[in-house]
Amino acid sequence: MGLNDKPSSERVHIGFFGIRNSGKSSLVNAVTGQNLSVVSDVLGTTTDPVEKNMELLPVGPVVISDTPGIDDDGELGLLRVNQTKKVINKTDIAVIVADAQKGITDKESSLIDIFKDKEIPFITVYNKSDLLADIPEAKQNEIYVSAKNGTNIYELKNLIGELSKHSDTDRRIIGDMLKEGDRVILVVPIDSAAPKGRLILPQQQTIRDILDAGAIASVTRDTELKEAFSMLAKQPKIVITDSQVFGRVAKETPDEVLLTSFSILFARYKGNLSQVVKGAAALGKLKDGDIVLISEGCTHHRQCNDIGTVKLPGWINDYTGKNIGFEYTSGGDFPDDLSKYSLIVHCGGCMLNEREMKYRLRHAEDCGVPMTNYGIAIAQMHGILKRSLSPFPEIAAEFDL
Predict the structure, then answer these.
(1) Would you give the DSSP letter of residue 223?
(2) What CATH number matches the domain at 3-167, 3.90.45.10, 3.30.70.1350, 3.40.50.10750, 3.40.50.300?
(3) Which of 18, 106, 149, 380 could form a cystine bridge with 22, CB 3.0-4.6 A?
(4) pTM check: above 0.85
């Protein structure tokens, strides 16, 4: 996978924020070296967040987001501000763009408070410095630039690069649990919901992480799992399965072989595995009339037997024996108000970056709404939750499973 093929969820997300006419769009264009955003002296020219996947030196693969002014007003303006707030939830590095002549206003100060509260590293950029008679000395993580004549644009990119180094992590999907030569079986069902001619992103990423660890990956459909076991001269260390066939795979996997699912691995990789395991207990407490939110981080064409809108609701109704209501969100949509939900069941989040996934988990926790994910919920309903957590005995012990 080349740098330009790196999925958005694995890139550094850099957001440009500020009030209208501070020169955000001009600065984005100067930093990227592209006409990414429309530039105008008219207030509110940027009406929706503009995102671009690109290679930005010295950072590497990034997602650049140009946002509407945080001071936009009126009915439409408030909608634009809400879109800007959604961008904040997935921003790894924030660039606050202020007019050098006006300095920091109350609006930029409110942004700074948000970034501090969410622990998002940020840079304060005073744009239009070419209009100043004297340029003040910049403080730490501050810089005076001119998008118009290119002053300090190179220095700003280096400053972004320095912050990106601090945001890097050594997170692994599974590679930290493997040693060279370990065998891993990945179970990938091919049904009407499977994309034609390719594997889905979490499967691709998991295979790559296995290979990076020097381990050996064997991929099979659930219908050929028994044959796959018989063909291996050495017992696999772990079986990783698509959650939809958890029950069948658990029956055919020897007890001494570790078993888990892609979505459980991604809960550990991007979120809080302990929190989503705890959330699964809410399945047994649902009552008639309760509403469950099923949320996916991606958008795709719904199939006739879609896991999120068909299979999971069916399993939950069968498991609880109750009359449960269901609501659905996908992509970047995640409700601010969660008060009507008794439980949130989220996908593995392969299309969301770590920061946005953790925001959703934290938001649910702050609202007092339990949240679990597809793999954990399915394992709970099939009575194999402890088995599916065998690679993570400390989590199973935490909840006395």
Answers:
(1) G
(2) 3.40.50.300
(3) 18
(4) no
